[in-house]
Fold this protein.
Amino acid sequence: MVGDEAMSDDPLLEMLVYFGTLSMVCFGGVLASMPDVHRFIVEQHHWMSSDEFTSIFGMANAAPGPNMMVVGLLGYQVAGPLGALVSFAAMSIPSSVVAYYTGGLWHRMRNKPWRIAVQSGLTPLTVGLLLASGYILTISADSGSWVAYAVTAATVVVALLTRVHPLVLLAFGAILGGFGWV
Amino acid sequence: MSSAPASPNPPPEPAAGPRTDAPTCWAIFSAFARASATGFGGVLPFARRVVVEEQRWLSDAEFADLFAFCQFIPGANVVNVAVCIGSRYRGVRGAVAGFLGMLVPPLIVIFLLGMFYRTYGDLPLAKGIMRGLGAAASGLVVAVALKMGTSFRTKAPYLFAAASFAAIALWRVPLITMLAVAAPISIGWQWWAMKR
């Protein structure tokens, strides 16, 4: 048996348990769970600053791959390559097992009223979670400069009103940041 | 020592689907690996192109229905899509092939970016670029939320969305607590509204 002290001090074990649990409850996807991940990594464990958290989130968005890459990158920053592997596996395996076993059930139930009630009941909560994600990530940036807020606001408006590819907006932010203006 | 199993576990058939010329596990792996490795700014459109247009594994409507399901269950949506499609054709092994295809390329990218960030993350140029990326990426998340929010037809969902935002962003309630309290209320309300 591992003692309590050893358990609570090992970031790998902490991340394994945390992301393994989150994987089963992160309705609304990985983006919607960012406030809780921020709470765990920054507020509870102080493994990195808020500013680093938002930077790593930005880096993950600019890279090819699913949204959940941010979890692996955060794990890397906390505990190196093994940290990346542990957090990434813990976040992806439990939910995939759920997907495997419930896929057929869902298909057969597609016209059942309870399925529609569950689905449309969870959507508003997801919307709130995503807004909370955007809010936490925005106020986390160290600089808190008006340019950073302006970039965020402009991205919201352009993404809502046009069909510009998200990468164009990210590139725009990266260029302004590269010049040291953000 | 056990020899190679003569009969693999008969995999459960999670979903009915056309099984004529079912793709091999390798085909499943490589299709999703391609979608994942090229999926800049969100893998979903890339996965849809590979699954619907290139491989013709699903029709557009089937893909939309599957994606709705994968958004609804917890976890990364596109990973769930890969698992469901893989299992539809090749059972457990297909599901594993889809899972690995979707996640191995990003894992390699994570190792490279992680090393990069540890080495150069403190340089002013890198710091600035990532700050800019972070600001834009935050805006993209807000835009997704607002797009979803415009689909509500009644007022109550806005109230639930606002409560969920306040609980998580302002009061910093753990996600699991918020869901345990708010999900039954919101789902119950929908149920009641549908019955009326």
